[in-house]
Structures
1.
Amino acid sequence: MSFGGVPCHGTIEPVSFPTSNSETRSKSADAGGKALAGFLLSGFLLALLGAILPAWGYHRDPPEFMTVGNYFLGVAVGVVAAVGLARRILARRGLAFLLVFACVLASVALAYLALVSPPASPWWRVAGLLVLGVAAGLLNKALFHANSPGFQADAAGTITEGGIWYGLGCLTATLLVASTLLAAGTSYVPGVLALMAVVPAIFAAIYARSSYPARPASGQPTLRQALKDFRSPGAMLFAALLFFQFGNEWSVAGWLPIFLIRRVGLSPETALTILALYWLFLMIGRVGSVAILPLVRHGRLLLGSLLAAMFGCLLLFFTNNAFGAATGAFFLGAGYASIYPLVAEAIGRRFPYYHPGFFNGIFSLALLGGLLAPATLGYAAAGMGVGVVIGIPLAGTCMVIVLLLLIWLETKVTGR
C-alpha cells in the first residue's frame, strides 16, 4: 500500500522511483522534521497523568496516594515492556509501521481511559495507563531511529531540540486539562480524554504518509560496540544522572497539583495553571540555556542551576499562597532547564557516533527514573504525608550534584 509512491507498510527502503539528490535530501529533511516533532506527542502522553489526577478527584479526602502510585507504576511497567516489543516490531515490520502502530495504540489507550474515568474501579485505569506506557515506549524507540540523521550530525543539538518539542507536548496536555476544568468542571473529563485521543491519531496519519530511508552501515558502530560503551563507567554515570534528574522533574510534574491543592489550599484550576507555568519555565529555560552555553562556563551555569532548583524546592515546601507557589515553580523550572542540555552536550562529545540502541538505552533508563520516582512518591506520601512530594526532589537534586562530581572525577582519571 502506498500514498503518492511512498511506501507506508513499515519498510525502511528508499523510494523506488528516481529522484534528484536535492529531492532526496528534501524528503529526508521533511521526514526527519516530522520525526523530531514526534517528541511533542511523547511529552503529551507522559504528562497526561500528572495533569489529569485532580480532574479524577485524587486531591480530595480520603487521600488515595497508593492508587496514584499504582497509576505511575503502570505507565513505568508499560515503558519497560515496550523495549523488547519495539525491537521485534522494528525487525519484522520496519520503522514506519512502528511509528504508526505506537500512535494508534496511544489513541486507543486514551479513548479507553475516557470510558473508565471515575467512578469506575481504579484498576481499569491502571490497565489503560499500562497500555499508554507501552505506546509511549514504542514511540520513543521509533523516534530515536527515525531521527538518526540528525543525531549523527549534531547529537547535542538534536537532543535539545527534541527536548523542547517534548516540553511543548507536556505544556499542551496540561493546558488542555486546565482549560477543561475552568470551562466545564470534572464532569467533562471523559470528553477531554476522548479529544486527546485525536492527537496521536493525527500523528499516525502523518507518519503513514512518510518514508524513512535506511541508514548507511558504513561508519556506524555495531550494536555490540554500542552496548559495550553503554556498560562503560562514563555511560552508566550519565545514565544514572539522567535517571535522577528525570526523576526530579517528573516528581514535581506528577505531584505538584495535588501538593498545592492539599498543602497550600489552592483550587485545582490554579494548581494546574502553576503546573503549566512549571513546564513553560522549563521549556523557555532550555531554549535560553542553549543560547548561552557558548558564552558562560559550564561549571558555573550548572552550579547556579542546581542551587536555583534547591531554592525552588524550599520555596514550594514553605509557601502558603499562589504567588509563592508560582515563584517556586519558576526557580525549579529555570534551575532544571540547563541540566539536560549540558548533559546532552557532554554525551555528544563523549560518544561522538550515534547508535539508536545506545542513545535509546540511556534515555529509556532516564525516562524510567522519571516514572518510577512519582510512583515511589505515591507510596511514600501514603505513609508520610504529601509534604514528601517536595522533599524527595530536593534529595534527588543533591544526588545529581554527587553524580556530576563523579563524572568530573572519571573524566580526569580517564582523560576522556
2.
Amino acid sequence: MVEEITSVEQLEEMISEPSEGVIETLPRLEGDIIVLGAGGKMGPSLARMARRALDAAGISRRVIGADLFPSAEQEMKLRQAGVETIRCDLMDQAQLDSLPDAPNVVFMVGMKFGATGQEALTWALNAFLPGLVCRKYSNSRISVFSTGNVYGLVPVHSGGSVETDAPNPTGEYAISALGRERIFEHFSRTMGIPVSIVRLNYSNEMRYGVLVDIAQKVWNGEPVDVTMGNANVIWQADANAMALQSLAHAASPPFVINVAGPEIISVRRVAYEFGELMGRQVTITGSESADAFLSNGRLGHRLFGYPRVPVQQMIQWVAKWVMRGGQTLGKPTHFETRDGRF
C-alpha cells in the first residue's frame, strides 16, 4: 500500500484497478459492456476498471461509455484507456435508442445534489429515465446504482440496514431513488430483465467523499457538525469492483446488494484524527444523534471480497492530499443532512 497519493494520474490509476474478483467475473459474462452515465464522479473509473479487467483476462470485448461528458478531458482520458465514448443525452429518446446494444449495462445516472428546487428534474432522471433504459435494453442484464438513503435513518447500534429491510426514505431525493429501484423492478418482473440494484453508502477517493468533507473543515478551521454522528465509507475502487461483479448476480426479480465499508465511522473521532495528522485544532458543534443513514455491507463482502483499502489508510491519504492542496471536485456529500433535502 502506497504511503501517499501525489497526483490525479496516480489516483485515477488506483481507483480503476480491478480486483481479482472483477478479473474473474467479467470474462464469464458474454458480450460488451456499456456504462450509462460514464462521465460522472464514479463513471470514468468504473469504465476504466472494466476495460482493464477484460484486458488482464485477455478478453477482446467493447467497453462503451455514454454520457454528455461535461469534461472533454475526462472523455479523452477514457478513450486513451481503451474505452469507447459516445456523447448522448440519455433523456432524448432518439439518442438513447441510437446507442449500441450490449448484453451488460451499468446504469449510473441520477440526481442528488441540487435536488431541492429541481424536484421535477430529479424525478425525471431518477424515476422516468429508468423506464426508457429498460425498454432499450430489455435483452440485457443491468447493474443499477442506487443509494443506502432509501432505507432511512436507523439506530447506530443496529449495525446498519440490511438488504431485506423495508425501505423508509426521507425527502424527495431518497423517495425518487426508491422510485428508480421500483421502475427497474417493474420491468425486471414484467419483461424478465436480470437486474442488480447496488445501494451505495458512501464512495470515497481523494477528490470527494465524507472523509474529504471532514478533512477540509478541519484544515480550514471550520466547525465539524456531529449531529449525524456516524457514517459508512468505502474506497471507490472497492465500490466499483462490487458493482461490476454484481452483474453476475443480476436476476428477475432484482438482486439487491449494499455496497458499504465494514466500519461505521464516528465523525467526531475522524475529525480529531484529522486534527492530529494536520496539526489543527478541531471545533465540534452539535451532539450525536442516536440514528444515522447506515448500511450493513457484510453480504457484499462475502460475495465480492473484503474491501482492499481500510478506512484508516483512506484517512491518512486524504489528510496528506488536503494539506498539500490537492484537487477536489467541489461536490460535498452533505452526509450530515438529516431531513433528506440535498
3.
Amino acid sequence: MNWAALAIGLAGLVVVGLIVYWQLVIAEGTYLGSRIVILLYDWSAHIYERIKQYDAGAEQWFLGLPLTRALTLIPAPLVLDVATGTGRLPRALLRQPVFEGRVIGLDLSRRMLREAVRRTAQFADRLTYVWQDAQRLPFDDDTFDAVTCLEALEFTPNPRAVLVELVRVLRPGGVLLVTNRVGRDAKLMPGRAFPRDVFERLLQELPLEDVKVRRWQMDYDLAWAVKVGEPRGGGVRPLPEILRCPACGGPLRRGTGAYVCTECGRRYPVGDDGVIEMANIGQT
C-alpha cells in the first residue's frame, strides 16, 4: 500500500470538507452566489425557528420595546424589515401594545416568507410581505420611519450597497437598526463582516447621525443610527403610493391579483398567501 498517497488523499478530503463546511455552514453560501443562499434558506425554512430558538420575551424586550420607544413621537409609523425571514422583527414590534403603525417585511427566500405569513397571521391587517432582493428595494426615497436588517448583511453579495439602499428609503429623522457579524466566525467572512471600527466608519460615511454600535449577542453587534435631516415622518400610506417597479422605478397600481407598473407594464403577482412577488419579474 502506498501510505504516502493515502495520507495525501485523506488530507485532501479533510481540506475539501473544511471548505464545504466554511462555505455552506459558516458563510451559508454567500461566496457561492445568491442562488445558493436562497436555496439553503428555502430548504431550512420549515425548521429555521427550531434552529434559531428565539426567545419571545427577549425579542420583545431587546428589539420590539426599544424600537417602539424610538418611534414614540411618530404617529402611525411605517417600518421596513429587510431580510425578515420568518417574521422575527415584525412579531417583536407588533406585539408592543403602544405600537400603532404598519410593518413591511422583505426577503429573497420565498419559502421563508410563506413561513413568516403563517407565524404572523394574527397581524395580517398591519403587515405586508414582499419577495424581493435587498439590493433593489422597490420603494421610493424617504419612505419609512424605521428600517431594520438583522443578522443578514453578511449573507448579501455587497453589504455596503445594501446599507446604501436601507438609508435611501429611510425618511430624514428615521431610525436605522442593523447588525454586523462579530466573534470567531466573522474572521472567516472577509468583505461580508467587518471589525467594529470599520463598521462604524461605514455607517458614518452615510447620511446618518447618532451612530451607536454595541455588542448585542455572541455573534453580532447591534447598530442604531438616525438619518440626517428634518424629521417629517408619520402616517401609513397605501401600498400603491410607496411601491416602485424594481425594473424601471415606475409607480405601481393594484390590478386583479397583481401590482402593475404604469410605465413599463410589468406585473408583480400577489401570491395565494398575500406575498407581493417581485423577485421574478413578470411578463408585460
